Amino acid sequence: MSVEKVRTYLETLRLDDRIIILEKSSATVDEAAVAVGCEGKQIAKTLTFLTDNGAIAIVAAGDAKIDNKKYKACFHTKARMIPGDEVEGYIGYAPGGVCPFAIVEGVPVYMDISLQRFAIVYPAAGDDHSAVRLTVDELWQAAKAVDWVDVCKNWE
């Protein structure tokens, strides 16, 4: 169901042919990298947080970790991840398949600069057995990203 929602959305951008349905799980960065056949750092993971203004999504490279000081400097609040059992309600996808496409209306998507070093990245496509092969520019467009942020560490 969720993959079909992503497919329908990506059809409008003529990117639906980039969806990859996987036999193996892609629920974690490591699993996704094996299933897709890339390095873990090329997995574009969508991290979700609660702010005083509601939920936000940040797409970051697979090897990047949220840096609490950078996050607070950028968003002026402590980083509070959405609890796993609440992610689908806030974002529209269950953990393991969270992606930045066709998410709940009004949730802003930010892209971390850790992604800028890649030509191709692989975000999820709505469930734990899917991915999408995109350039970073295509990801930006498809995610309707609002800004680049520098909120991660351990990737440089």
Question: What key phrases describe this protein's structure?
Answer:
156 residues, alpha/beta, 6-stranded mixed sheet, 5 helices
Using only C-alpha atoms, the radius of gyration works out to: 14 Å
User: What is the terminal separation in angstroms?
Assistant: 36 Å
Strand tally is: 10
User: What's the order of the H and E elements?
Assistant: HEHEEEHHEEEEHEE
Q: Strand share of the residues? A: 25-35%
Classify the helix fraction into a percent range. Answer: 25-40%
Overview of this structure, please?
The chain is α/β, with parallel strands linked by helices. It is about 25% helix and about 25% strand. It contains five helices and ten strands, in the order αβαβββααββββαββ. The protein has helices spanning about 1-10, 30-35, 70-75, 85-90, 135-145; strands at about 20, 45-50, 55-60, 65, 110, 120-125, 130, 135, 145-150, 150-155. The protein has a six-stranded mixed beta sheet. Strands 1-7 form a two-stranded antiparallel ribbon. It has a two-stranded antiparallel sheet with strand order 4-10. Strand 2 and strand 3 (about 55-60) form a beta hairpin. The radius of gyration is 14 Å and the shape is globular. The termini are far apart. The mean pLDDT is about 95.
Short description:
By secondary structure, the chain is of the alpha/beta class. The protein has helices at residues 2-11, 29-36, 68-75, 87-91, 136-143; strands spanning 19-21, 43-51, 54-61, 65-66, 109-112, 120-123, 130-132, 134-135, 147-149, 152-153. The chain is globular, with a radius of gyration of 14 Å.
